[in-house]
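General statements about sequence and structure are easier to judge against a single worked case. In the encoding step, the backbone of a single protein was reduced to a row of integers, each denoting a local shape. The record that follows shows the chain in one-letter code together with its fold in token form.
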Amino acid sequence: MAALQIYVMFPGTARDALSFYADVFGGELSLHTYEEFGRSDGPPDAIAHGTLEGVVSLAGSDAASGEESVKVQGVMLSLLGTAEGETLHTWFNKLAVGGRIVDPLSSKPWGAVDGQVIDRHGLHWLIGYESGS
């Protein structure tokens, strides 16, 4: 079934970023270079298209010459309730390495556990679950 998928244009860091997300979330990573796609609008070893397929799926590439790369403002990637609490804590902690915790993953007055982190590649994540999960 087709669903919305996030596609991120990275500033020459797609290989590192997508590999980082594969380490955080698991799944199957597929990377294809500009050279493999016959592109000449960037370095031959730049990523022309990469996908991470798994519990968390996303795709991306290195921005070509003249293209804008990711600048996330006013958007969070929500993983609310997408896994058991222990898994969500693991993901949160891994995403925080080299990034910035905006709001610690902790119990909130409304009864849920949630938090926010901006990872080292600039993506803003909202992670949480209902208490007791």
About this structure: The domain at 77-130 is CATH 3.10.180.10 (2,3-Dihydroxybiphenyl 1,2-Dioxygenase; domain 1). The mean pLDDT is 93.
